[in-house]
Design brief:
Elements: E1 11-15, H1 25-37, E2 45-52, E3 59-64, E4 67-73, H2 84-104, E5 109-113, H3 118-129, E6 133-136, H4 150-166, E7 169-172, H5 175-184, E8 191-192, E9 216-221, H6 230-242, E10 247-252, H7 258-267, E11 274-278, H8 285-290, E12 294-297, H9 306-313, E13 318-321, E14 334-337, H10 342-353, H11 356-370, H12 375-391
Parallel strand pairs: 1-2, 1-5, 2-4, 5-6, 6-7, 7-8, 9-10, 9-12, 10-11, 12-13, 13-14
Antiparallel strand pairs: 3-4
Helix pairs in contact: 1-12, 2-3, 3-4, 6-10, 9-11
Length: 402
Amino acid sequence: MLEETPTTAMRILMLDNEFPPLGGGTGVVNYHLLDELRHRVPPIHVDLITSSRSRRRFEYEEMTPAIRLHKVPVDNRNIHHSTNIELLRYTWRGYRYARRLAARAPYDLCFAFAGVPAGGIAWALRRTLGLPYIVSLQGPDVPGFENRYRYVYAALTPFIRQIWREAAAVIAISQRHRTLAWQTAPSLPMDIIVNGVDLAQFTPVSHAPRPAGAPVTVLCAARLIERKGQQHLLGALARLASQGVSLRVILAGTGDAEPLLRQQAQTLGLQDKVQFLGFVERSAMPAVYAQADIFCLPSFNEGMSMALLEAMASGLPVIVTTTGGLEELLDGNGLVAPWADVEALAGALATLAQDDPLRAEYGRRGRQIAERFTWPAIVQQYVQLCQRVLDRQPGRSRHDAH
């Protein structure tokens, strides 16, 4: 249970266009935040406005009487990715719904997961209702984070910068993430609150001795998109196969690049060495990590990868690229290769594949590091930041929902 803080009950309006089962890591972080807040005494009252996959139906759920989920119809066609039209639907309908909720009972604070679209709603509510807001930057909402959004960034960067500057606080999720954000808003004060991992759900497992000649299993759990770098992992696998290094790769996830990756595997003659799992329910992911000997995430950019933390908690040695949110989690628990350097990636894979004691040592160290990232401690940082923001609001009253 989280520590109590000497405050009256906060009332928070929370905004996030994705929430499990929709979306990826941002929704997972949001879920764990609310799950921890369920146990808080005195309660913090949260109304989360998120997306419904319905075309017209508004949906409502309660985690507790104090934590309520309001889902506006967005008609998401893809459970993992929202189109620009779907994001615009969430923005407009979410804003209108937020206005109605605020009219019933005023909020102390608005908390937006991601600068767009949620941050845009929070900015509009501040302009119309005077409601202070916090923005938690999550990755692709930061200009420059993902190459495929470069034209969107060019159009939205002035608005994104304004959203950040008018926020009562801005949160980044890693040192490199904040450094990238400072390229858009130099010297803007930004807190860092990292992501966490469920240490009870993701735990190391004991593997039976591998039969002689059996392949070492490499897992990459991530959306299948160009930024995540699975194409380089397959290139490294082909290089090692030609050298007689016995590996197989499991790709857990779906995405726009899946057809190209399947074609690449076929072209390289890797059909019997690559397994495409597709979408995996979160409840099934511990069993997926248990199948692996190595976790590899050769990504171009990350805020702070949830999958990497889960792999470390599961006792897997890791291979990552020299990018924020990945290399910051390395300290004697894995190897680093430059982005898109297939030769270096193949070398790292060969090193771990051929050294059982090294894999075991890196796996033990990874679990030790993951144990620093507990959700109760991380959620406490969120709560303390909210309290500091409220304490800086002159003349604002607190609204006790009892």
